[in-house]
Design brief:
The structure holds 2 protein chains of 2 kinds. Chain A has a single domain, classed as Rossmann fold, CATH 3.40.50. In chain A, 25% of the residues lie in helices and 25% in strands. Chain A is built from 5 helices and 11 strands. Chain A has helices at residues 2-10, 35-47, 58-69, 83-86, 138-147; strands at residues 51-55, 74-76, 91-96, 98-100, 105-109, 124-130, 134-135, 154-158, 163-164, 172-173, 180-186. In chain A, the strands form 3 sheets. A 5-stranded parallel sheet of chain A has the order 1-11-6-3-2, sandwiched between helices. Chain A has a 4-stranded mixed sheet with strand order 7-4-5-8. In chain A, helix 4 (83-86) links the parallel strand 2 (74-76) and strand 3. Chain A is globular, with a radius of gyration of 21 Å. By secondary structure, chain B is α/β, with parallel strands linked by helices. Chain B has a 6-stranded parallel sheet with strand order 1-10-7-4-2-3, with helices on both faces. The N and C termini of chain B lie far apart (57 Å). Classes of the chains: A alpha/beta, B alpha/beta. The interface between A and B is large, with 66 and 86 residues. Strand 8 (154-158) of chain A pairs antiparallel with strand 9 (266-271) of chain B.
Chain lengths: 189, 457
């Protein structure tokens, strides 16, 4: 710290150290509940190799989950198994606490449920997202996070399945995280 | 390889056909993707200016922001360690591992830990360290160093990777990239399961909340920061952003500049430690704040902008020098234009005097830099520092430029020099072999521009 201060002091002849004024105070925003946001979310998620299913009620959600998980070992974020068992699961199911339409991104908040490993370790991740929690932009989502009372220890933004291009720049999906990402959006009329 | 032999390294790299092919593919592809991603946003230029203004503010008030950042993160359970240089940082981290009786360390990709050569220090302390980013894992197995900031194994072909995996992991030979990737996944899963400590870098530190933000595509950073009981994050002191909202600018610029993605696959926002024992995640979060020469750069506005760098690698892909020779020829952890600027300031110009000259000053790096760092100006600044520190070393060069100035400021002398030059070039070759070795010296035309002008006017 002493080194930082003394070197900053050296730069004094070049400019003043007036603090910068905040130009963009965060406004409180609410999610944009329009179907165009859902459509944009779906388009952008599919552009990064994610799958998107739109369900109108609980039954349709259950049907979609069953279709993907049939005959597979499931871990869910309400009652996650031990880490050892989780390594042997095929599918992890979590909620997503928010979505960002402009990039098809999910937001998972560790304060809401035990979602950190269930969304990461199994080769398939299913996330259920309420359409009313989809924000149009990254900016709106950040403003929502900032306006909350206390920020959670771990918030994760997820955009599509795990990927790498480290060998000859060949895109390969599912390197450390899930190979498949399914987002089920509940859109109530 | 080291930086003092840059010109020899560069020559060797130019002979390496396979390397040059790989570089051509990679830099062209990254360059194209970056331009397309930048063009997809209508306010790209405004974002760049805004990003730079945010960074300038952070750096000018770094003392105050650091104190605030530390206070906010400590309140939420993070522990801080200040490291003046690489040796101190390594000692701190080795001490933390010793106190916890740790044996297995998993690491996620971090240029800052490369900078301090952390793996060597940990291995010397008797620990098993494994790099978990696929590219870093490959070069760790090959005992090499990264050749690109964001694609560390860019210089290797899939066949070379396959041979490496066959020799080191006992894999059946294949050059299917998907199979190679899944073998790495399976091998590294075991290491994750056994790890006592996870070490990561940091992309951004958010002052108002004490949050660290780390971006990636593979998921190894999430595993590194979620599974082991202790998480150690190594961050340069310059990585701060004042507000959460500032991420709106940087999370748009960074992935687009690095890989051309609109968003990286995973962005982890870690704020202190878990609040309840039953929660997921590490019990402890230690943040090592590294100076290692950075505070020196604060002293002058020209050098200070080097600290605005977000390590996206865009300047490497755009650089005509990097495109030809790749990262290893620089002999440094940070290659390319930004490396030629940062390394001499971190290590001292005595040891790295060739690097600021490893550029044609074309300005392509400045054009693509998401935080508008004026790299050519910085290179000139460093060159002038070098030449003022070596008054005797470049006597011939000084003399030549004095002579040039003398001639160019006197029209009669210029005319005389041009006439004699044209007359004598038939019999006399100027002693410029050092310069003409890599370039052509075109003969002067029989008729000068002035003469042509007079004739055709």
């Amino acid at each position: 710290m002493r080194s930082i201060r003394s070197h900053l002091a050296l730069s004094a002849p070049y400019e003043s150290r007036e603090p910068r004024t905040n130009t963009d105070p965060c406004k409180s925003v609410s999610p944009s509940v329009v179907s165009s946001v859902v459509a944009e979310f779906k388009r952008n998620l599919e552009a990064v190799d994610g799958h998107c299913i739109i369900a109108r009620n609980k039954l349709e959600v259950e049907a979609a989950v069953t279709r993907i998980t049939e005959g597979k070992r499931i871990a869910s974020s309400d009652a996650p198994p031990s880490v050892q068992d989780l390594f042997n699961c095929d599918v992890g199911i979590t909620w997503a606490q928010a979505g960002i339409a402009e990039t098809g991104t999910l937001m998972l908040d560790s304060a809401a449920e035990q979602n950190r490993l269930v969304s990461l370790v199994p080769p398939v991740h299913i996330a259920i997202l309420d359409a009313s929690r989809i924000y149009a932009t990254l900016g709106e989502t950040l403003a929502m996070l900032q306006s909350g009372d206390e920020i959670s220890p771990a918030i994760t933004f997820i955009t599509g399945p795990s990927r790498t291009a480290d060998i000859e720049l060949t895109l390969t999906v599912g390197v450390h995280g899930p190979q498949e990402l399914h987002v089920i959006i509940i859109e109530r009329n | 390889m080291n930086t003092e032999t840059f010109s020899e390294n560069a020559k060797a790299a130019l002979q390496d056909v396979q390397l040059r092919g790989a570089l051509r593919n990679a830099t062209t592809l990254f360059g194209k993707r970056r331009s397309a991603a930048a063009a997809s946003l209508s306010n790209w230029e405004e974002l760049r200016s805004e990003a730079r203004a945010i960074k300038d503010d952070v750096l000018l008030h770094l003392d105050r922001y650091l104190e605030e950042f530390v206070e906010n993160a400590e309140r939420r359970g993070a522990k801080f360690h200040w490291a003046r240089d690489a040796a101190e940082a390594n000692d701190i981290i080795c001490q933390l591992t010793r106190e916890r009786g740790a044996r297995n360390v998993v690491k996620s990709k971090s240029m800052t830990t490369e900078e301090i050569h952390l793996n060597t220090a940990l291995e010397r302390a008797g620990l098993q360290v494994v790099e978990t980013d696929l590219g870093e894992y490959i070069i760790q197995l090959a005992h090499e160093t990264p050749s690109h900031i964001i694609a560390p194994a860019i210089h290797k072909t899939k066949r070379q990777v396959a041979e490496l995996f066959t020799a080191e992991l006992g894999m059946a030979p294949t050059d299917d990239v998907v199979k190679l990737t899944s073998i790495a996944r399976a091998t590294l899963r075991e290491r994750f399961a056994a790890a006592d400590i996870g070490i990561s870098g940091v992309n951004f530190g958010i002052v108002e909340t004490g949050t660290i933000v780390i971006v990636e595509n593979e998921g190894n950073i999430r595993l590194t920061t979620s599974l082991p009981r202790t998480h150690i994050a190594v961050m340069g002191i310059e990585k701060l952003l004042p507000r959460f909202a500032d991420l709106d600018v940087f999370l748009k610029l960074l992935p687009r500049s690095a890989t051309g993605q609109a968003s990286s696959t995973y962005q982890s926002f870690i704020t202190g430690t878990k609040r309840k024992a039953s929660d997921e995640g590490p019990d402890e979060l230690h943040i090592v704040l590294l100076d290692n020469g950075r505070s020196r750069m604060l002293a002058h506005p020209v050098t200070r902008q080097s600290l605005a760098c977000v390590r996206c690698g865009a300047c490497l892909n755009a650089c005509p020098v990097y495109q030809q020779i790749g990262g290893h020829a620089y002999g440094t952890v940070y290659p390319g234009p930004i490396g030629s600027v940062i390394t001499p300031q971190l290590l001292g110009i005595e040891k790295t005097a060739q690097l600021p000259y490893a550029s044609s000053l074309c300005g392509a790096c400045r054009e693509v830099c998401p935080v508008k760092i004026d790299i050519p100006r910085l290179l000139l600044h460093l060159r002038s520092e070098i030449s003022s520190k070596q008054p005797s070393g470049r006597r011939a060069e000084r003399f030549a430029f004095k002579l040039w100035a003398l001639v160019m400021t006197r029209p009669w002398l210029y005319r005389l020099a041009a006439v004699t030059g044209r007359l004598f070039q038939r019999w006399f070759k100027p002693p410029l072999r050092a310069w003409t070795n890599g370039r052509d010296l075109r003969p002067l035309d029989r008729e000068s521009f002035r003469e042509q002008w007079r004739r055709t006017r």
